[in-house]
Amino acid sequence: MMIRVMVKEPFEAPYETEIENELEEFKRIVGGHIECVPLADIPGTVLICNDEGKLQGLAPNLFLNMDVICGTVIAAGVSGEEFADLPKSAALKVWLRLTIRALHRPEETDRATGFADEP
């Protein structure tokens, strides 16, 4: 069964897509074993990420709960103990969260802050 999710790859904008609701598909997208992190202030949603993203040296993606999530993340809805469609009512909030907390390439950050111009 297909579900509607939002995917956020490192240094890229989040986008909505449909994926197969299968563990192997989630593992393929995040590149390894999955870890689920609830988005406490957006009920009915969870972020799915690579459990060992930092250890595998995956690119940093976003700040979350005083930590840095590395590698691709998937935002999905939850229904009981199952993944489900990302609720339409939560899609904008999730997109904003993933965009605002995103990490940027160091050269882009330096350029935006002016540090790239210093000797």
Characteristic key phrases:
six-stranded antiparallel beta sheet; 24% helix; 36% strand; alpha+beta
Detailed description of the structure:
- Helices cover about 25% and strands about 35% of the residues.
- Residues about 110-119 have low confidence and may be disordered.
- It is an alpha+beta fold and about 120 residues long.
- Strands 1, 2, 3, 4, 7 and 8 form a six-stranded antiparallel β-sheet that branches.
- The radius of gyration is 15 Å and the shape is globular.
- The protein has one domain (about 1-115).
- The protein contains three helices and eight strands.
- Strand 7 (about 75-80) and strand 8 (about 80-85) form a beta hairpin.
- It has helices at about 25-30, 90-100, 105-115; strands spanning about 1-10, 15-20, 35-40, 45-50, 60-65, 65-70, 75-80, 80-85.
Describe the structure concisely for a colleague.
The chain has helices at residues 23-30, 88-100, 106-113, and strands at 2-8, 15-20, 34-38, 45-50, 60-64, 67-70, 73-79, 82-84.
